[in-house]
Inverse folding.
């Protein structure tokens, strides 16, 4: 055993694990919670870990199941949010409540196999601060989802200055230091994938095969995906706004070129009916202006959301967690 270990792992371990936190958001997943819990326990057998499950306002039997699991196993901590706050916020709530020196975020639908976590831990022990899992195969996703994901990543690359690994989801492990840096970012429009790259530190990828959902359906509708994509891009890039300016300059340039042309035609005396071209110009300009205003509106709306400074989420119940002050119910920081 020892030689095999040395062969695979020539570098000495620089970290020893005191506690691993596994954070998973759940939203109406009563069909698979028990299986998820069992698989995490099996994959992490012998390791000191806590499982932080965030109920993101489920309306099925998820809360009861969570209560039962927490009652039977004190390593399982449950945070029940007061309503549905969305995937990224639910993960954030879990991260806020995790106390491990290494923390993994993982989807509860078993698309991210918990069996990969020990490999991620190996990298962490050897000193990597952020280990993200990169899917080199995705099962059970529609062609449409794969195509839209490809388009999104292309667009994100073109517009934002954050080198995002294309095939990484939110499945990743963070050391305590980068996690604290991540949690210091309290912005409302959260794109955790981008934010974990933004904080820096040493980062490594671990390949894995993404499975199909164990049961139930995806909670991301097309509308939600579109909103998520624009949240992602707008929180890492001002380039769409700059594009509006660029368009403005281009159109003005065309107008300036047009002036001498029109004058010259006037002098030469050729007849200019003008109606069609005018209509097109007016409609085109009107359209571009409205688009630019809408784009600015998207950013202004997001500024408004940030400025209100509301807590990111509201916690209704905590299980297997130390008690908190009554006035501290919104957020632990
Ligand atoms: N989820 C959540 N809140 C939401 C939507 C999803 O907590 O509003 C959870 C969901 O239970 C799952 C994970 O986030 O554990 C990923 O969601 P899903 O599988 O629906 O997304 P997909 O894998 O299709 O992108
Ligand atoms: Mg999923």
């Amino acid at each position: 055993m020892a030689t095999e270990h040395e062969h695979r792992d020539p570098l000495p371990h620089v970290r020893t694990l005191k506690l691993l936190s596994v954070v998973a958001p759940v939203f109406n997943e009563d069909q698979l919670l028990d299986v998820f819990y069992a698989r995490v326990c099996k994959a992490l057998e012998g390791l000191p870990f806590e499982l932080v499950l965030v109920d993101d306002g489920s309306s099925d039997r998820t809360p009861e199941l969570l209560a039962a699991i927490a009652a039977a196993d004190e390593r399982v901590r449950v945070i029940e949010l007061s309503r549905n706050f969305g995937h990224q916020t639910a993960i954030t709530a879990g991260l806020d409540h995790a106390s491990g020196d290494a923390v993994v975020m993982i989807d509860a639908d078993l698309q991210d196999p918990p069996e990969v976590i020990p490999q991620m831990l190996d990298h962490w022990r050897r000193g990597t601060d952020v280990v993200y899992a990169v899917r080199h195969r995705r099962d059970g996703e529609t062609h449409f989802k794969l195509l839209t994901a490809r388009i999104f990543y292309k667009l994100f690359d073109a517009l934002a200055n954050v080198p995002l690994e294309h095939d990484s989801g939110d499945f990743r492990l963070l050391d305590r230091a980068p996690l604290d840096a991540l949690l210091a970012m309290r912005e409302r429009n959260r794109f955790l994938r981008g934010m974990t790259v933004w904080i820096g530190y040493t980062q490594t990828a671990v390949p894995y095969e993404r499975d199909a959902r164990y049961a139930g359906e995806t909670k991301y509708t097309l509308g939600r995906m579109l909103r998520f994509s624009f949240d992602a891009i707008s929180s890492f890039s001002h380039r769409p706004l700059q594009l509006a300016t660029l368009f403005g300059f281009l159109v003005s340039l065309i107008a300036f070129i047009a002036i001498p042309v029109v004058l010259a035609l006037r002098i030469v005396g050729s007849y200019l009916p003008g109606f069609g071209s005018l209509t097109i110009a007016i409609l085109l300009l009107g359209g571009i202006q409205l688009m630019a205003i809408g784009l600015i509106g998207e950013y202004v709306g997001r500024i408004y959301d940030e400025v209100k400074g509301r807590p990111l989420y509201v916690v209704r119940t905590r299980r297997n967690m130390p008690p908190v002050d009554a006035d501290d119910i919104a957020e632990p920081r």
